[in-house]
Amino acid sequence: MKHNLALSAALFAAVSIGAIDTAQAGENNRKRAAKERCYGITPAGQNDCGNLAGTHSCAGQSTVDNDIGEWRLVNKGSCESLGGMLRKEAKAKFKATTKV
To answer: Which of 64, 72, 74, 92 is deepest in the core (most CB within 10 A)?
Structure first.
């Protein structure tokens, strides 16, 4: 009897953890959906991922404050009020400044 109880408890714990992970994944997806990439507002070393120039592909590798090619995730709809640009505008400005 104790064996069945222990097995049931272990199974319940495993299923519960899976349900929590699934719920957390869903919450993370909702949070991510409520965010957008904002270019030109990132302090050096605080970018979220790769840049428009393709000179790096990792977070934290920006070297210049407010580089128009670097981005951070911000709450959807707040980018322009923070002084930043959305990807389309940033990409156009980046291309215009890098033409030789």
So the answer is: 72
What's the rounded Cα separation, in Å, for the pair 20 and 59?
A: 28
C-alpha distances (whole Å) from 92 to each of 87, 89, 95 are 9, 5, 5
pLDDT digits (tens, 9 = 90+) for 28-64: 666 667 999 999 999 999 999 999 999 999 999 999 9
Please check whether residue 79 is in contact with residue 38, taking contact to mean a CB–CB distance below 8 angstroms: yes
Q: Residue 41 and residue 80: Cα distance in Å, rounded?
A: 10
List pLDDT tens digits, range 66-92: 999 999 999 999 999 999 999 999 999
Q: How far apart are CA 75 and CA 32, in angstroms?
A: 9
In whole angstroms, give the CA distance from residue 73 to residue 47: 9
CA Rg, the chain, in Å? 22
Q: Are the C-beta atoms of 72 and 36 separated by less than 8 Å?
A: no
And the tokens for 88?
């389309």
